[in-house]
Amino acid sequence: MTLDLRRLTPDYGVAPQIGPEDLAAVKAAGFVMVIDNRPDGEIAPDLQSDAMAVAARAAGLEFVINPVTPGQFTPDLVARQRAAIAAAGGPVLAYCASGNRSTILWELVHAGRLSVDDMLQTAAQAGYSHEQLRPLIEAFAKT
């Protein structure tokens, strides 16, 4: 795999699926935590969360499992992502199949804290068009 790292902020980046071989580069890029937003049922055993957790910790990275089924963004998932980011103590890299779900989670974590327009622009600059998610982000801002 080729690491396709996209920084949304200095402290939060997203990537399509990563593999154990990418973790040294993730660490070298300054990240302290990796969040796996991909359900194990989508991927081969060598990339599933338990295997990735072992590899991440061996590389000196914290590892959090917060799988998201496409389109299933619940308040609990958002709260777990927010808690992981807060506990990281440094930059976080979140990944899923394409980086899209991890970007949506970033938007929902910051709903009501950052401008929706600014977040949508940041996502677009990273290659993710989320204008259709404006109502969802605005709904999370009210919670």
From TrEMBL:
Pfam families: BLH_phosphatase
Matches recorded under InterPro entries: BLH_phosphatase-like, Prot-tyrosine_phosphatase-like, Rhodanese-like_dom_sf
SUPFAM superfamilies for the chain: Rhodanese/Cell cycle control phosphatase
GO MF annotations, alphabetized: hydrolase activity
All copies of domain Beta-lactamase hydrolase-like protein phosphatase-like, residue ranges: 4-112
Gene3D superfamilies: Protein tyrosine phosphatase superfamily
Name of the protein this chain belongs to: TIGR01244 family phosphatase
Organism: Tabrizicola oligotrophica
